[in-house]
Design goal:
Layout: H1 2-13, H2 19-57, E1 64-68, E2 74-75, H3 78-85, E3 90-105, E4 108-117, H4 121-124, E5 132-135, E6 140-141, E7 144-150, H5 151-157, E8 168-173, H6 183-186, E9 187-198, H7 202-205, E10 208-212, H8 213-219, E11 225-226, E12 228-233, H9 239-250, E13 254-258, H10 259-262, H11 264-288, H12 290-302, H13 304-312, H14 317-352, H15 374-401
Parallel strand pairs: 4-10, 7-9
Antiparallel strand pairs: 1-12, 1-13, 2-11, 3-4, 3-8, 3-12, 5-9, 6-7, 7-10, 8-9
Helix pairs in contact: 1-14, 2-11, 2-12, 2-14, 2-15, 12-14, 12-15, 14-15
């Protein structure tokens, strides 16, 4: 193998008599360089975006969510609280109640999802503070009910949440209303004082408003009821065990889901987008590998006398194949190594300085997030080697099969 490798390196780096071979070899290496760099950059960006989406969704989607199998709400009984408290894997849990409601502020109205949460909610979502952009994180004080709105909701209502002088009116349809002949009697309404605003992404900012749970239970006629239990775990690596224990403790009347199961479609879309883009770029690299076939085919023609001499010295045809296979691999790997190095430098610059900004002013992240993974580098390197082997095999096989028929004539 050392002999074949040394010959392959000499063929790669030595000057060829025909300048076209040098140009095609350079084009082949450059194609692999940019293809490899693009693969690493795309995979790193998708890794960063996946991590960003998961961190943003962690604000609204807990480690574990428990809902009723039948019906929209369930009783928040003392027995249920005791069962949850008996499970050691749970760090904190909160009862929440979600309903769509009409919000009114001054002369503006907006329909959004109102989320009533108890006093333990901010122990479940400990990072909520990082998304507060205006006002304070407070929902209840001295029997006064406050609300925390998304910046999108605040914009729809024309409200500055930190300096709101008027209360927000919340309208909810009465469950006992048989008809809407009298609109005044068809709705429950109550008032909350704006306390602050949060910003995560457009999806959440224009949708959610937080209010105290007991206040919202009275407004919706869901006394002592909740629509979901949100749980924070002491150790996320024990999620599966905690789910099994919760399901066993609570019984079949409750559905217990992990954060992944709550957003299963989203995570599958993120993964599929990443690998579809990866497959497209690999296809482009395969097309670019035809340059390797051309370069090696021309090199075989130039090295007729060398191959004939090696054959006369006792080099087997399989060794001839190895020489040109290694030549193709070296041609690609040199470009691929430089491409990986450039991708690594660009990713570091993006992390430290921020080269490419994130479009949209609502994002808390100003620049595209990137996250490099060793697995991605190894996988891209493997793809480059496989493509190089396939592209180099045909010229290598042709060189070996033609030795006895043509190349020995050059010794005469």
């Amino acid at each position: 193998m050392n002999l074949e490798l040394n010959i392959a390196k000499r063929y790669l780096f030595s000057k060829k008599s025909t300048n076209a071979i040098n140009i095609i070899s350079l084009v082949s290496g450059t194609a692999m360089l940019f293809g490899t760099m693009a693969l690493i950059l795309v995979l790193s960006v998708f890794n960063g975006l996946e991590g960003l989406v998961k961190s943003l969704y962690a604000v609204f989607y807990p480690d574990i969510a428990i809902t009723a199998v039948e019906g929209k709400t369930f009783e928040t009984s003392t027995d249920l609280r005791q069962k949850l408290s008996s499970i050691n894997y749970i760090d904190a849990f909160s009862f929440v109640l979600e309903e769509n409601a009409l919000l009114e502020y001054s002369d503006r109205q907006h329909i959004c999802t109102v989320k009533g949460v108890d006093k333990n909610y901010f122990n479940v979502v400990k990072k909520f503070d990082t998304f507060m952009v205006d006002g304070k994180k407070i929902l209840q004080k001295y029997s006064i009910n406050f609300c925390i709105v998304g910046v999108g909701v605040a914009q729809k209502l024309g409200m500055n949440a930190a300096q709101a002088f008027n209360p927000v009116t919340i309208y909810m349809p009465k469950k006992t209303s048989g008809s809407f002949a009298s609109m005044e009697n068809a709705f429950n309404k109550s008032y909350v004082t704006p306390a602050g605003a949060f910003a995560v992404s457009d999806e959440f900012d224009s949708k959610y408003t937080f209010v105290p749970l007991d206040f919202f239970q009275q407004l919706t006629d869901n006394y002592e009821k909740a629509s979901q239990i949100e749980i924070r775990l002491k150790d996320k690596t024990h999620t599966d065990i905690a789910i099994q224990q919760l399901q066993h403790t609570l019984g079949k009347s409750f559905s217990v889901k992990s954060r992944y199961e709550q957003n299963e479609v989203l995570y599958k879309i993120l993964k599929s987008e990443k690998w579809i883009t990866f497959a497209i770029l690999v296809l482009i690299m395969i097309i670019a590998s035809f340059n390797i076939i051309g370069a090696l085919s021309m090199l075989v023609l130039e090295k007729k006398k060398d191959i004939a001499t090696l054959t006369a010295l006792g080099i087997h045809k399989n060794n001839i194949i190895k020489i040109f296979l290694l030549e193709g691999i070296l041609m690609s790997c040199v470009g691929a190594f430089i491409g990986m190095l450039l991708a690594f430098i660009l990713c570091i610059l993006q992390q430290k300085v921020g080269l490419v900004p994130m479009p949209g002013s609502s994002f808390l992240v100003q620049y595209y997030p990137v996250k490099m993974q060793l697995f991605d580098f190894a996988m891209v390197a493997l793809v480059v080697i496989i493509i190089s082997l396939i592209a180099a095999y045909l010229p290598a096989k042709k060189a070996a099969m033609s030795v006895e028929k043509e190349y020995l004539s050059h010794l005469s």
